[in-house]
Amino acid sequence: MHMAKRERTPGRVTHVGAPRPAPRSTPMPADGLPCMCATLRAASRAVTRFYDERMAGSGLHVTQYTLLRVLAAAGPLEQGRLAGVLHADATTLSRAVVPLERQGLLARQDVPGDARRVRWAITPRGTRTLERAAPLWERAQADLRARLARGEWDVLRGLATRVAAEVSSDQ
Questions:
Q1: Which of 2, 13, 92, 105 gives 100 a disulfide partner, CB atoms 3.0 to 4.6 angstroms apart?
Q2: pLDDT tens for residues 23-36?
Q3: Could you give the C-alpha distances from 60 to 29, 94, 146, in angstroms and in order?
Q4: pTM, full prediction
């Protein structure tokens, strides 16, 4: 008796040469992605690319610019507080601060009385880098604002801020 050859993949067994079922897909609605999370993530990625392209000459990504700008305005912040201000988790924040520290743009400071906690401060070199990047960031802001209809900028910013606050309060 001849047995069909089987191929194992995690979670399922298929027969070699057997037609695979077509993947199930949800048709894309004409007005965008069917999930608010997916829609916001797509918008976030597109806007991040938009800013990064315009800020390329600064040596900073917009996310790094934002982090430096927060520390320049607020002064040194403990890592947990900085993560909260940026609405970032600890892993994301760690990936962001390490290259900035290596470049000498941020300085790690110990928190007296607790060796497990760390505080981040912008360095003089970080301040100079931020000042050089500011005109590129301002231009990106102006370019994006120009692409929106009158009044949409403030509405969009207000809605995004409100959504972030609403879902953050659930945690």
A1: 105
A2: 555 555 656 667 88
A3: 36, 16, 23
A4: 0.76
